[in-house]
Amino acid sequence: MTTTQSAAALPVNTILNGDCIAEMAKLPDASVDLIFADPPYNLQLKGELHRPDNSRVDAVDDAWDQFSSFEAYDRFTAAWLAEAKRILKPDGAIWVIGSYHNVFRLGAELQNQGFWILNDVVWRKSNPMPNFRGKRLTNAHETLIWASRSEGAKYTFNYEALKALNEGVQMRSDWVLPICTGHERIKGEDGAKAHPTQKPEALLHRVILATTQVGDVVLDPFFGTGTTGAVAKMLGRDFIGIEREADYRKVAEARIAKIRKFDRQALEVTASKRAEPRVPFGQLIERGMLRPGEELWSLNGRHKAKVRADGTLIGDDIKGSIHQVGAALEGAPSCNGWTYWAFKRDGKMVPIDLLRQQIRAEMHAH
């Protein structure tokens, strides 16, 4: 099957009706970019849970969350993860989310099947449900595991976009986000919440923005009320949902139909510096942006060097690249010459990186 045929055969932007393993089995090999899976938690609740005032807690006690034993749950986990691995592209990745009831079993099976764990993320709930019995700590987080399909896979990670989302600071592996409440919590016709474990859109926004590109296919085998699909559509990604419960499918379809995709410009994110085209310093001299013999100054004003015709520098009898000369003058193990050196124009210091950005902008325009 050619790539174009397999892409055409993919039921993108639809919710498949059926069991996740059976429906995944119908999809072609290596056809999806990312899987976000929120499998049943197998909560092992014993009896009803009541608040101190004796009102009943609306806990997850649905039939789909029940398994007869850990062995049964493990067999189910192994089966759906095997299908997930088959349909992921070689450089695809998976996110699974769980609680202490199941996340360790999920993590072990991911490793058993050759997935490569990249991070575990703690989603710390800023508004968790209290512990009513007072016998344990208030359970205030869930754990996400992010894994590539195999060790050495070139998975997508939009590092700079996540850093921008976090006000210029590296994104950490503990995410403080509220649980789904208020206007975002979807209610059924009876006014009760439509799904007991609906995930907040903020969580999916971060996952999809971080680990996919516009136009990628995101599969959610436990689609529920469709948070993954709603956020994927908003962010210009294609989705495939699998959901066997008719009530959830109905809610998800209505919800996703109302979503508007962001415009193309709004979907662009801060690119990784590594993804930018490489510009050799020598190109600045070839193009006459800097001249041989022109002096460069360190931005801290302490050092200077002369530009040579071949794109090397000479300063204090040290010859070499913009990086080597900068490092030697500073006595540092390394130096990013692009951010270290500047030239003077009209009495002002101008970083050489501005010239590199100019060339890159021209490359993008073509």
Roughly what percent helix?
A: 25-40%
Oligomer: single chain
How big a fraction of the residues is strand? Answer: 15-25%
- Number of continuous helical runs: 13
Shape: elongated
The main pleated sheet reads as: 8 strands, mixed
Secondary-structure-derived class? alpha/beta
Biggest sheet strand order reads 1-8-7-2-3-5-4-6
Uncertain spans: 1-7, 44-52, 54-65
Radius of gyration: 26 Å
Straight-line N-to-C gap: 33 Å
Order of helices and strands: HEHEHEHEEHEHEHEHHHEEEEHHEEH
* Mean pLDDT reading: 86
For the secondary structure, the number of strands is 14
Brief summary:
The protein is α/β, with parallel strands linked by helices. The chain has 13 helices and 14 strands.
General description of the model:
It is built from 13 helices and 14 strands. The chain has 366 residues and is an alpha/beta fold. Strands 1-8-7-2-3-5-4-6 form an eight-stranded mixed beta sheet, with helices on both faces. A six-stranded antiparallel beta sheet has the order 12-11-10-9-13-14. The longest helix has 18 residues. The radius of gyration is 26 Å and the shape is elongated.
Descriptive labels:
eight-stranded mixed β-sheet, 366 residues, 21% strand, elongated, alpha/beta
SSE diagram, text form:
Layout: H1 3-9, E1 14-17, H2 20-25, E2 32-37, H3 70-87, E3 88-98, H4 103-112, E4 116-125, E5 141-148, H5 159-165, E6 174-177, H6 201-211, E7 217-220, H7 227-234, E8 238-243, H8 246-257, H9 264-267, H10 281-286, E9 295-298, E10 304-307, E11 313-315, E12 318-320, H11 322-330, H12 337-340, E13 341-345, E14 348-351, H13 353-365
Parallel strand pairs: 1-8, 2-3, 2-7, 4-6, 7-8
Antiparallel strand pairs: 3-5, 4-5, 9-10, 9-13, 10-11, 11-12, 13-14
